[in-house]
Amino acid sequence: MLRTRSRWIAAPLAAAALTLSYAGYQAAAAEPAPAGAAARSAHAPVPADAADAADAPVPCLADSTTLIGDLDGDGHPDRITNPGHTGTEMTIQWGTADGTFGEKTAVRDLLGAKKGEDATAAVADFDNDGTLDMVVNIVEPSGGDDPSTARLAEYRPGPLNRTDLGSADAVHSDIGDLGEVRQLSIARYNDDAYPDLAVLNNAGDGQMDRDVRLSQPGGGLGDFDREAKQKYGEYGTWAEPPAMPADGWQHFYNTCS
Ligand SMILES: [Ca+2]
Ligand SMILES: [Ca+2]
After folding, report:
1. Rounded distance, CA 172 to CA 175, Å?
2. Which residues form the signal peptide (predicted)?
């Protein structure tokens, strides 16, 4: 009797162990497995969402300025660092199959920014499809009262090309049409699941504004919207620029466990 019962129990446990070992592999690829997780798994029932572990790894925060998530779509999480939340000094370390990260590469170099040009970027899953996306802007500041317009300003849905951060579905963004982008930052301006964008914009003649671009539930970022600017933006000066959000990622991503 006891042996019969054991067999009944053993079969599902073996299946569970297989599923969990694959899930464990996925977790290990994303980050160091939490201590004791494997031991607990052996006795715990298969979680209802175990199948989700086979999907793309969910982005998470290593710290407030470091996002771990897959940017090039190879299934291995990459390390995106954004010092000061400004979008001007962003670096990427491509993830490898063994869960480690390659050497740091400056986003401005990947984008091909030239000497004298400012490159600014923001990373989040703007269309909430599970793949990280990027907004990029390259501008050569005019140095005078009248701002110059961007040489390149695009919304780039992921996955992105490793060599130049290109996207097959890139579209022009108007963030660089109305001034010189000084900073880009992720924000949560309305309460939907789609990250929004804050733009520190040199509008010329001593004016420095915080512009906003709201993500569209259908995908992509909206264009300039006067109503959104009145509601979420702010007018400032070169001497006293408006504050930029520093907690955007934290609204959408949990700390890596
Ligand atoms: Ca990757
Ligand atoms: Ca996306």
Report:
1. 9
2. 1-23
Q: Quick one: the chain helix, strand, coil %, rounded to 5? A: 25, 30, 50
Helix (H, G, I), strand (E, B) or coil at 23: helix
Distance 129 CA to ligand 2 centre (A): 5
Q: 38 exposed, middle or buried (CB, 10 Å; 0-12, 13-18, 19+)?
A: middle
Query: Can you say whether the dihedral through the CA atoms of 85, 197, 163, 72 is positive or negative?
Result: positive
Considering every ligand atom shown, identify the ligand nearest to the alpha carbon of residue 162 and give its number.
Answer: 1
Question: Which ligand sits nearest to residue 124's alpha carbon?
Answer: 2
Q: What is the rounded distance in angstroms from the CA atom of residue 152 to the CA atom of residue 59?
A: 27
Write b or e for each residue in 166-189: b if 16 or more Cβ atoms lie within 10 A of its Cβ, otherwise e.
ebeebeebbbbebbbbbbbbbbbb
Q: Which amino acid is at 36?
A: G
- What pTM does this model have? 0.79
Instruction: Return the ligand number nearest the Cα of 94.
Output: 1
Tens-digit pLDDT profile for the chain (257 aa)?
444 444 444 444 444 444 444 444 444 444 443 343 333 333 434 333 433 444 668 999 999 999 999 999 999 999 999 999 999 999 999 999 999 999 999 999 999 999 999 999 999 999 999 899 999 999 999 999 999 999 999 999 999 999 999 999 999 999 999 899 999 999 999 989 999 999 999 999 999 999 999 999 888 899 999 999 999 999 999 999 999 999 999 999 999 98
E strand residue ranges, 27-151: 60-63, 66-69, 78-81, 91-93, 105-106, 118-124, 133-139
